[in-house]
Design brief:
phosphoprotein, 5-stranded parallel beta sheet, Rossmann fold, about 45% helix, about 15% strand, 2 domains, two-stranded antiparallel ribbon, sequence-specific DNA binding, elongated, ActR/PrrA/RegA family redox response regulator transcription factor, about 180 residues
């Protein structure tokens, strides 16, 4: 059973920005069924056009798009309409990118595959209590390893540049990169 949007929501405009056409189209249809006036955009360029032409009240934006980073769309949407509610989606979830998404203006960050009900809940719920602690949280070693991997990717897999930015010796970084990810 699909629950309709609450009647107090007047502006039901919603933009879905995702370069995966089947996913984007399914999401647009599912959100329309829930009462939104949803449209889709295939990437950063179309997302930026929508932000400047007709900024929506709600948006769902994928983090990694073929033509750039979804954070650019989040920032443009937030500038065009400060009261917008944006949820970031990503298949590459990590803590650092979630923090960045929230700093840029997203109200929530969901890992793919997220269904329409999860997205609607994230868009509509104000003052949600903190979720319960995870049953099996990542270990500190795993968080450290993921952070190092993220910086390594951001430095285009350049070991020397990554070591400089992380303020560690290059050989130490090489040893860490050659090991498998820690468990948990």
């Amino acid at each position: 059973m699909v629950e309709p949007l609450p009647s107090h929501i007047r502006d039901r405009s919603l933009l879905v920005v995702d370069d995966d056409a089947p996913l984007r189209n399914r999401l647009v249809r599912a959100l329309e069924q829930r009462g939104f006036q949803a449209t889709g955009a295939a990437g950063v360029t179309e997302g930026l056009e929508a932000a400047s032409e007709r900024p929506p009240a709600f948006a769902v934006v994928d983090m990694r798009l073929e033509d750039g980073n979804g954070l650019d769309v989040v920032e443009a949407l937030r500038d065009a309409r400060p009261d917008i509610k944006i949820v970031m989606l990503t298949g590459y979830g990590n803590i650092a990118s979630a923090v960045t998404a929230v700093k840029k203006g997203a109200i929530d960050y969901l890992a793919k595959p997220a269904d329409a009900d999860q997205i609607v809940a994230a868009l509509l719920e104000d003052d949600r209590p903190l979720p319960p602690p995870p049953e099996d949280p990542m270990s500190a070693d795993r968080v450290r390893w993921e952070h190092i991997q993220r910086v390594f990717e951001q430095c285009n897999r350049n070991v020397s540049e990554t070591a400089r930015r992380l303020k560690m010796h290059r050989r130490t970084l090489q040893r860490i990169l050659n090991k498998h990810a820690p468990r948990g």
